[in-house]
Amino acid sequence: MLDSTIAPPAREESPPRQRRRRGGGRRTLLAGTAVPAIGAAGVAAYALRDGESATQETGTSLPTVAVTRGDLASTTEVDGTLGFAGSYTVLAGDGGRITWLPQTGTVIRRGEQAYGVDGHRIPATCQ
Fold first, then answer.
1. What is the arithmetic mean of pLDDT over 82-105?
2. Residue 11 has what pLDDT?
3. For residue 123, is pLDDT > 80?
4. Which one of 31, 91, 100, 101 has the fewest beta carbons within 10 angstroms of its own beta carbon?
5. Which 3-state string (H, E, C) describes 108-124?
6. How many CB atoms lie within 10 A of CB 115?
7. Could you tell me the pTM of the whole model?
8. Alpha-carbon Rg of the chain, whole angstroms?
9. How far apart are CA 100 and CA 72, in angstroms?
């Protein structure tokens, strides 16, 4: 066999580490406490001023009215007959078997039963 020595691979030199300065955390801590303290002092000074409101300073006030609670509704009645043009699929939740349908000519109002699925009443809703 050959008498030879294999040299280990050459390592790359890493750049020298820079030393961290001490006191960097102190500056961050000081800035972190000084900013909220200055803000709190400003809020306190604003709150403790002579107790005057903005309307007292300007001497004007806006007109006001009493609030009343009520329902808003709008209806339009028309004459006619509701019909259909062919059949279509009704999307009604999880599915099931239709167990009840109204008689032809039945007037169904909002909230009344429109049809039944697996014995459950399905009310008419309008969107």
1. 78
2. 66
3. yes
4. 91
5. CCCCCEEEEECCEEEEC
6. 17
7. 0.30
8. 40
9. 34
